[in-house]
């Protein structure tokens, strides 16, 4: 497994995805697009080109945001990003 590289210049794009099954959600990034799994588990981090894809289970609420719950989409036919 690779280690997290240090960014020396430029920018790095990070996309955070909440998934019910982070291992399954990681496969397209790693197996299809050729990304490198930098960290497996919760959260999973995949390095792909000049970006990071962070895939994690939901959670919350927290003390500082008692009304906020982070959860995977309930309906697979509706999306909020692509």
Brief descriptors of the model:
four-stranded mixed sheet; 2,3-Dihydroxybiphenyl 1,2-Dioxygenase, domain 1; 82 residues; alpha+beta; 4 strands
Write the layout of secondary structure elements.
Layout: E1 13-18, H1 22-32, E2 36-39, E3 44-48, E4 51-56
Parallel strand pairs: 1-4
Antiparallel strand pairs: 2-3, 3-4
Order of helices and strands: EHEEE
How far apart lie the N and C ends?
27 Å
The largest sheet, given as strand count, sense and whether it forms a barrel, is: 4 strands, mixed
Structural class: alpha+beta
> What percent strand?
25-35%
Spatially, the strands of the biggest sheet line up as: 1-4-3-2
| CATH superfamily annotation | 2,3-Dihydroxybiphenyl 1,2-Dioxygenase, domain 1
Please give the share of residues in helix: 10-25%
Strands, total number: 4
Kindly describe this structure.
The chain has 82 residues and is α+β, with helices and mostly antiparallel strands. It has one domain (10-72): 2,3-Dihydroxybiphenyl 1,2-Dioxygenase, domain 1 (Roll), CATH 3.10.180. The protein is 13% helix and 26% strand. The chain contains 1 helix and 4 strands. The chain has one helix at 22-32; strands at 13-18, 36-39, 44-48, 51-56. Strands 1-4-3-2 form a 4-stranded mixed sheet, covered by helices on one side. Strand 2 (36-39) and strand 3 (44-48) form a beta hairpin. The protein is globular and about 40 Å long. It starts with 12 loop residues before the first strand and ends in a 26-residue tail after the last strand. The model has no long low-confidence stretch (mean pLDDT 87).
């Amino acid at each position: 497994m690779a280690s997290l590289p240090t960014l020396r210049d430029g920018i790095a794009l990070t996309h955070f995805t909440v998934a019910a099954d982070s291992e399954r959600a990681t496969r397209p990034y790693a197996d299809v697009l050729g990304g490198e799994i930098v960290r497996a588990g919760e959260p999973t981090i995949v390095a792909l080109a000049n970006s990071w894809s962070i895939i994690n289970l939901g959670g919350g609420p927290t003390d500082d945001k008692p009304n906020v719950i982070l959860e995977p989409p309930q309906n697979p036919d509706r999306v909020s990003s692509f």
